[in-house]
Amino acid sequence: MADNYKIILEYDGGNYSGWQIQQNTSETIQQIVEEALTKINQSKVSLIGAGRTDAGVHAAGQTANFFLDISIPVDKIPLALNRHLPEDIICKKAKKVNDKFHARYDARGKKYRYRILNSNFNSVFVRKFVYNVRKKLDLDPMKKAADILEGTHDFAAFCSAGSSVESTVRTIYSINLILSGDEIWIDVFGDGFLYNMIRIIAGTLIDVGRAKISLADFKEILISCDRRKAGFTAPARGLTLLEVFYD
Amino acid sequence: MADNYKIILEYDGGNYSGWQIQQNTSETIQQIVEEALTKINQSKVSLIGAGRTDAGVHAAGQTANFFLDISIPVDKIPLALNRHLPEDIICKKAKKVNDKFHARYDARGKKYRYRILNSNFNSVFVRKFVYNVRKKLDLDPMKKAADILEGTHDFAAFCSAGSSVESTVRTIYSINLILSGDEIWIDVFGDGFLYNMIRIIAGTLIDVGRAKISLADFKEILISCDRRKAGFTAPARGLTLLEVFYD
User: Fold this and answer.
1) In this predicted model, what pLDDT tens digit does every residue of B82-117 receive, in sequence order?
2) Average pLDDT estimate for B63-79
3) Which of B82, B89, B124 sits opposite A11 (nearest CB)?
């Protein structure tokens, strides 16, 4: 009997073509973790991730599940897995779950953080995980603009072309701007996100912070449902999937 | 007339063979910064660093000085220099100084930080700048042991063989252990340090934290002046030169 396991993964997405397995590259996180699991299980394992992080996006708490044929104490899984993983992908936790648990279908919410390093110079210590904005940002209007996004809205203005979703309506439960030293964190907690949604929100909030977009304009952008009116897509390297929530 | 400039450098030492120029490798920080300065000056520039960080050791505030023949506004120097530097070396500040200023001879003190990630798993976000110790360390005896090191002592027990200094007496002005999330920081401020001194102090304090070395033994180690009695040399990647102090 195969058992179903849920794991929490942390990764530096900088060296990878995103989460999802692709035809033309083996450098995806899903593929690398599947290969490590297959070594442990000694037969093919399929890994189901809660969400598909894009190329260059990081995770502190990506969640995934898979079935193993072999019997292994659950607390040994992270160590066994990390032995087969590169240093920039780490399994932090494993839990035996109900056979019906599905990391993607059962996800009820996700929390992401966009990290802006608002400083004259980049920092060698965090450069791979932040977007360096040199011009001093005004946090107050950024917070007010962020508040406008909370709740259930059609976020079409904050969605890159090329996605084929049925609906662009999503719910943002909370969006908080946090000042931490030289960094500004945009923490977004929602039921699900459109293609590039958080990176476009970050880019648009940055434009608010440097007074290129007013609060009135920001409201207009959301209502317009027009991607061309919103700000730029902030770089992938500033974005981290913090946590996935389940019932 | 050549002008004398003092700069502050931040670097990720992980990809380099240390600060000091060597015959067999061009991958030293001094060499790379000298080459960048030479491009700006269009004739050879020599760079004097406050201290020689070892291979793999990082800096948040390495200090250096050099003379430039060309005339350039001092506030343009960091930007000009960073344009010629790789992303893991950043010039943060430049200041015009007296012709007599010498980054090494005039240094009055240095502050280093040794970062321990005391956690069951490493972290992809900080792994290059910390030493991951899995066993839970007991901070209290570590603090008491650190207190023993403050003041002027013969630190021969905390000095790797192979150094040819005249005296192994040094003064530690302060040594503080700081808990920051999952990290333990050992902050050491002193007038100068012997070869591998802070890394051996860190290794020995870690052994105190995991009850391999008692406080009484720790006192004995200092008095013995015998390197073989002290703990292991903690890895270079956990060490960062924070700041150099001048009159």
Assistant:
1) 999 999 999 999 999 999 999 999 999 999 999 999
2) 95
3) B124
Phi, psi angle pair for B194, to nearest 5°? -75, 170
- Determine, for residues B124 and A92 on separate chains, whether the beta-carbon distance falls below 8 Å: no
- Can you tell me which residue has the tokens 């001048």? B246
Is A60 in Cβ contact with B125 (below 8 Å)? yes
Domain boundaries, chain B: 3-97, 109-245
Q: What is the pLDDT of residue B165?
A: 78
Chain B partners within 8 Å of A11 (Cβ) = 124
Fold (topology level) of A109-245: Alpha-Beta Plaits (3.30.70)
Q: Do A125 and B129 touch (CB under 8 A)?
A: yes
Burial class (CB in 10 A: 0-12, 13-18, 19+), B246: middle
* pTM, full prediction: 0.93
Q: What is the pLDDT of residues A48-83, one digit of tens each?
A: 999 999 999 999 999 999 999 999 999 999 999 999
A154 vs A158: CA distance, rounded Å? 9
Residue identified by tokens 């609906």 is A167
Active-site hit among B54, B182, B191, B217: B54
CB contact under 8 A, A87 and B122: yes
Of A90, A123, A127, the CB nearest to B124: A90
Give the whole-angstrom CA distance, residue B154 versus residue A218.
Answer: 64
Sign of CA dihedral A9, A205, A196, A247: positive
Closest residue, chain B, to A91 (C-alpha): B121
Which of A54, A88, A140, A154 is labelled catalytic? Answer: A54
> What is this model's ipTM?
0.92
Position B201 scores a pLDDT of 98
Using CA of residue A236, residue A205, residue A177, residue B59, what is the dihedral sign?
positive
Residue of chain A nearest B87, judged by CA positions: A124
Residue B161: predicted pLDDT: 79
DSSP string covering A99-151: TT--TTTT--EEEEEEEEEESSS--TTTGGG-EEE-SPP-HHHHHHHHHHH-E
The count of C-alpha atoms lying within 13 angstroms of the C-alpha of A156, restricted to the half-sphere facing its C-beta, is 11
Other Cβ atoms closer than 10 A to A30: 22
Q: What is the pLDDT of residues B7-53, one digit of tens each?
A: 999 999 999 999 999 888 779 999 999 999 999 999 999 999 999 99
Q: Which fold has domain B3-97?
A: Alpha-Beta Plaits (3.30.70)
Q: Distance between CA B198 and CA B179 in Å, rounded?
A: 18
Q: Choosing among B11, B81, B125, B131, which should be mutated to test the A contact, i.e. which has the most A CBs within 10 A?
A: B125
Whether B3-97 shares its CATH topology with B109-245 is answered: yes
pLDDT value, residue B144: 98
Task: Determine, for residues A78 and B121 on separate chains, whether the beta-carbon distance falls below 8 Å.
Answer: yes
